[in-house]
Amino acid sequence: MLSIVVAHSYFLRFDRKQLDRAKPYPPLATLQVASMLRRSGHAVLVFDAMLADGVEEYERLVREVRPQLVLLYEDSFNFLSKMCLERMRRASCEMIGLAQSAQARVLAVGSDAADTPEPYLVAGADAVLLGDGLTALQALLRRLDANPRLALAELIDGQSGIATLAGGRLTVTRGAKASSDAPGVESPAWDLIDIERYRAVWQRAHGYFSLNMAASRGCSFRCNWCSKPIWGNKYLQRSAGEVAAEMADLKRRFSPDHIWFADDIFGFRVDWIAEFTQAARAADAAIPFTIQTRADLISVPMARALRAAGCAEAWIGAESGSQKVLNAMNKGITVEEILTARARLKAENIRVGFFIQVGYLDEQLEDILATRDLIERARPDDVGVSVSYPLPGTPFYERVKSQLGTKTHWQESNDLEMMFRGTYSSEFYRAVRELLHDQVSASQSNCTDRQDEGARSALSLHRRWENLISSERRYRSNDDAAPDDGAALAV
Fold first, then answer.
1. Other Cβ atoms within 10 Å of 312 Cβ, number
2. Which pLDDT tens digit goes with each residue over 294-319?
3. Which residue of 109, 252, 258, 364 has the fewest C-beta atoms within 10 A of its own C-beta?
């Protein structure tokens, strides 16, 4: 059997926004794979980058353990890993180089590696495994177990779902994107990471402790901007009883106060949620939880089922208040469905957050103002605002790739730089983000503030929007008078 270090490269320390937010979650997919490898008899350790001080911690581990294999397996449930941030790619490549220096074989799996394998291979990875990589991984492990120093050509011979470099030339053999017929999901190897380190961060910053789970993998919808290099367009749902049993196990072992379901879409069907509720109650597993879902899935029975299951908060990919933009995104929802979903969830006392995206192709000022109006009408409890981010493998990327310059990825999650020629400059969209956040904050404050304070806040916000609107032509990307992205836009 092999000695293996399973690692990922999302360092919270390298992402200032998320570091300040202080809501770290363990690398779920990484821990599931570690569990699978250990069950197969391999000697497994995990390097958890999330709360590490830097790559130096990883270097010390690799030097001390001298593993035969380093498996860089990114957490595909972490949306930040899916963003393929440049700072994390640099960390990955540095980790690969350190593993190679320690005479370890190196395999890499992740969204960025699948989209752009060359940097990982040039850094020294033997191969990048495509999709979730599990089928190819199991085959390669059998060969490495027989001969850890097996020549690369023999190691990958006849295998699909792999990218390698041969003579400086990239070779990709495509296979199934995900092992969708796998009988079940491994329980994460929680004992291989320091859970108490996570608890301390959460308690210090928020006064409670949250852990993560996933009841499904993938998404069957086809939004034009959504990259799916791991599971494609499949939606792979676990049994409700299995999910409830895992929640019961987490409750018994770690006593979290809250669960974040990392699914792209939680539940999907009312009958599944009802079955989950029944199983969770029978196992005394109930813990308040937060989910992600779609507006068009929130029927009245769905909202009631979610409340009965213990859902405390639901995040909806609203994206825009402009139907024109929603249609261009191939989002498959209407503005009215967003408003209705918010109302139905609110009626069940479920908090609602909106994911909003600005800067999509051909979005104009009136579309941005339609999004402002959506926020005003719906009054969500929270909002997350980003700008459109073209990732390889998406129809959106294909439409704008000729406009991309030397920068093709954000450095960190708060970058929000326009990497294609949108209607406005990056600074304009950053100003819109701040206004939308403040608009949500103001609407929540108005519920508790005195009337005169609420009126002053509303007036200030109105003036800032007017300032933005009056200066917007200066920030159009096709305007010769537009200032550089570095110019501040005071709103």
1. 16
2. 999 999 999 999 999 999 999 999 99
3. 252
Q: Give per-residue pLDDT as tens, 423-448.
A: 999 999 999 999 999 999 988 876 65
Run of H or E residues at 183? none
Spatial distance between the Cα atoms of 41 and 467, rounded to a whole number of angstroms? 64
**Domain check: are 31 and 91 in the same one?**
yes
| pLDDT tens track for 21-55 | 999 999 999 999 999 999 999 999 999 999 999 99
Instruction: Using CA atoms of 440, 445, 450, 453 in order, give the dihedral in degrees to the nearest 10.
Output: -60
What are the tens digits of pLDDT across the range 120-164? 999 999 999 999 999 999 999 999 999 999 999 999 999 999 999
Q: Please report whether residue 67 resides in a domain.
A: yes
Run of H or E including 50: none
Tell which residue, 203, 280, 273, has the closest CA to residue 248.
Answer: 280
As given in the structure block, the two tokens for residue 99 are 């593993």
Q: Which helix (H) or strand (E) holds 316?
A: strand 311-319
**61 phi, psi to nearest 5 deg:** -65, -45
- Find the domain containing 123 and state its range: 3-173
Quick one: CA torsion of 222, 223, 224, 226, rounded to 10 degrees? Answer: -100
pTM as predicted:
0.92
Pairing relationship of beta strands 127-129 and 169-173 according to DSSP bridges? unpaired
> What are the angstrom distances between the C-alpha of 236 and each of 184, 227, 258, 369, 411?
10, 17, 24, 37, 31
User: Which residue type sits at 19?
Assistant: L
Question: Same structural domain for residues 239 and 144?
Answer: no
Mean residue pLDDT across the chain: 92
Comparing C-alpha atoms, which of 355, 280, 354, 356 is closest to residue 311? 280
Q: Which residues contact 465 (CB under 8 A, 6 or more apart)?
A: 372, 435, 491
Q: How many CB atoms neighbour CB 147 within 10 A? A: 10
Q: How long, in residues, is the chain?
A: 491
**Residue pair 222/60 in contact by the 8 Å Cβ criterion:** no
- Residue at which a domain ends, from 330, 359, 387: 387
> What CA–CA distances, in Å, run from 275 to 58, 282, 289, 293, 350?
42, 11, 16, 18, 20
Residue for token pair 């929270």: 382
Same domain assignment for residues 168 and 248? no
Q: Which pLDDT score, from 0 to 100, does residue 481 have?
A: 44
Torsions phi, psi for 74 (to 5 deg) = -70, 155
Residue 152 in 3-state DSSP? helix
C-beta neighbour count of 41 within 10 angstroms: 10
The single residue listed with the structure tokens 């909106």 is: 354
219: tokens are 């998404």
The angle that helices 426-445 and 365-378 make with each other, rounded to 10 degrees, is: 20
Residues 287 and 351 in one domain: yes
